[in-house]
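Re: Re: ligand-bound prediction request (bumping)

Still looking for help on this. To restate: I need the protein modeled with adenosine-5'-diphosphate bound, output as structure tokens. Inputs repeated here so nobody has to scroll up.
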Amino acid sequence: MNLRTQLGRTWHGGRWLVALFLLIGVLAPTACVLWFLNVAVNNDRDASRRKLEEAYRGQLKLLRGRVDSWWDKRAADLERESRAGSGPVVFERLVTQGLADSVITPEYPSLSTGATADPAATRPDWLAARLLESQSPSAAADSWAAIAKGEPDVSIASRALQARVRSLVRAGDRAAAIHTIEENFTTGRFLHGRDPEGRFIALDEQLLAIRLMDASRTALATRHLHDLVADYSGLPIPSTQRLFLMDELGAASFPTYAAERLAAQFLESGRTRPGGSALEPTGIPDLWKLTPASTPLIALFHTATAIAGMRSLSAGLNIALNVTPPGHAPPAADEWMPAGSALPGWQISISMPGQEFDAMAKRRVASYVWIGLLAIAVVAISALAAGQLLRRQWRIATLKTDLVAAVSHELKTPVASVRVLVDTLLAEEHPEAGKTRDYLELIAHENRRLSRLIENFLTFSRLERNRQKFEFTEVDPVRVVEAAMMARSQSDAGLSVLIAPDLPRIRADEDALVTVLRNLLDNAWKYTPDEKRIAVRAYRENARVVFAVEDNGIGIAASEQKRIFRRFYQVDRRLTRDAGGCGLGLSIVEFIVRAHGGAVRVRSEPGRGSTFFVAVPAAT
Ligand code: ADP
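Reply:
Sorry for the wait, this slipped through. Here it is.
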């Protein structure tokens, strides 16, 4: 195995090792940073969530307290507002104040109308008038009028008048019927007459008049009846009659209609026992009852009303309170707890503001990622810098080893030949003059070879350490060629020089360019076995002067033509052993030519010879 291959392998092996270490040096910290990042982000997220949960739990407790006191206050309000006034008045007050969706007081609303026995049912005049009604309605109408007139009981008189109206309608006398109603039932004494079921006769009659009237006249009558029905402090209208009249007159115009309807629904359900002071189910879906302590009052609440009222409690807390009735599950994402004693079975919960939390977490993750990327970038940059440094150190170390190896190797042969020649001469006491001269010439040849070697080593060492100082001046290319020819040690046999006329001057360090040409000439000589035909040419090519050194030697394979310019590179070491050289000549050539802003290239064919072209820019 030759020196070059050995060195090459060491260098390549080492390079991979360095690359591997650097990769590990970057990958390992990067993986650690990423791992830490991941853990940190997760921990941070958990911690934030926990903190948030604690905060929300605190808020939830606060809200539970508020919910309790809200219901306490509601019960107290209901109790206070129910103290004064009759049943209907209390009903209207509580409902219109919005204290409940509906209310049941002991007197109002009620399903019973206070029905009584009919005292007139067995009176002969009453029975006679009723009989007459089917035979002669108008005669019956007169009979009824007569009964009403003499009757002191307002309810019986009212019923007689009601029967008169009925008879007039039967007789086809609508005007008289309406007149009778307007005259008797709109104001005054007959307003208070009730039928055996407890209903106010006047109100039913007013409704009848509205139906009998021409459409143009109904507005006033309707208004009048509407006011009577809507007045809870006036006639003690039974709730069933009021609800009927409201339905007839248009439910939407009565603010208490919904409450009346709800109360009726509740009463009809038959489960009207008053509850406790907590919100209890009524048995009707989505309807709850509350009975404030020490009042026989039942306040009714729709689920939606109760929830809406409680939800308003979170105003100002910047969170949304959710209230879940019994039998329902609170929203999954919510922090929840049982509502207070006022709401058995209910749950209150607040939503964690998911979006806000996520946005916060995202912002944090982003900042961590940036920090992580920064750390990775710092590690990578440091690793790169370290790699560069290592590479340089490695190169220098390899160079030193190569140099020492090459020097000792290349010096060995000439030094050994000189020693043998000198020893041979010394061994003879009177050496022959001719032989002595031959030996001395051989010694001189080895000496020159040694000098060239050492010269190349020194130049190379200077170039490598950047100690080579070029002194650029305007130089005549002809002088460069001449100087190179002078300095060379080989014979003139087979050598031709061809210099084009009128070559421009070049900006160059003359000595350095002479070294270039000498190295190329040395190589041409070394790598051309017999019958050497070596040509040196100098000619102009555009704005450049080209020096070409051509030989008819062994040539260089295309695959080797790039490599020969590398330091210590030799195509076939066995060939160069005799010729001398250590693979530095062409690397020196390339270095110098580049320093001149020029270029060197080779054209070669194995077995036929090579031509090296050195192009240097002409001085402007
Ligand atoms: P060396 O000191 O070995 O000549 P060089 O750097 O001058 O080193 O040349 C590198 C290698 O290039 C040589 O070993 C040789 O194999 C090849 N080489 C250089 N010049 C020629 C040429 N004119 N003909 C054939 N091969 C050449």
